[in-house]
């Protein structure tokens, strides 16, 4: 499994923790930045990660900022992306089974507790399809009709 990962300046240290977990889980990843605590604009990082996932160069993406909110908002502006801010295992599981999320958004300020479990559930839980696919199809139509 190949994962694209990126963070803003507030998520750099947390991203190092997450990439360590990914390595331990046997996943390969590419870091799209940021690499220092020098301020950056999170939409730039989100766009780079999400476009790579949308082009199917990566299976999934992870985006990290202070709260995860800004990254999730920016991620969902990219066609074909379904970014989900997950702060617990339940939301990670539902993001995959019901929404087929392909971008996991995390807030660095929430801390490290439970992150390994969130990653494990997000990357190993399959999409259920069925009635949920109908809803994803409707969202895809919304993307086509954007003003």
Q: Give the CA-based shape.
A: globular
**Radius of gyration from CA coordinates:** 14 Å
CATH architecture classification: 3-Layer(aba) Sandwich
Strand count: 5
- Terminal CA distance: 35 Å
Q: CATH superfamily, please?
A: Sugar-phosphate isomerase, RpiB/LacA/LacB
Helix-strand topology string = EHEHEHEHEHH
Amount of helix: 40-55%
Relative strand content: 15-25%
Poorly predicted tracts of residues: none
Q: How would you sum up this structure, described in words?
A:
- The structure is a single chain.
- This protein is α/β, with parallel strands linked by helices.
- It has a single domain, classed as Sugar-phosphate isomerase, RpiB/LacA/LacB (Ribose 5-phosphate Isomerase B, Chain: A, 3-Layer(aba) Sandwich), CATH 3.40.1400.
- Helix content is 45%, strand content 16%.
- It is built from six helices and five strands.
- Strands 2-1-3-5-4 form a five-stranded parallel sheet, sandwiched between helices.
- α1 links the parallel β1 and β2.
- α2 crosses α3 and α4 runs parallel beside α5.
- It is globular and about 40 Å long.
- It starts with a strand and ends with a helix.
- 36% of the residues are buried.
- The model has no long low-confidence stretch (mean pLDDT 95).
Question: Any key phrases for this structure?
Answer:
5-stranded parallel sheet, 147 residues
Topology:
Layout: E1 2-7, H1 12-24, E2 28-31, H2 42-54, E3 60-65, H3 69-75, E4 83-85, H4 89-97, E5 103-107, H5 115-124, H6 131-144
Parallel strand pairs: 1-2, 1-3, 3-5, 4-5
Task: Summarize, please.
The protein has 147 residues and is an alpha/beta fold.
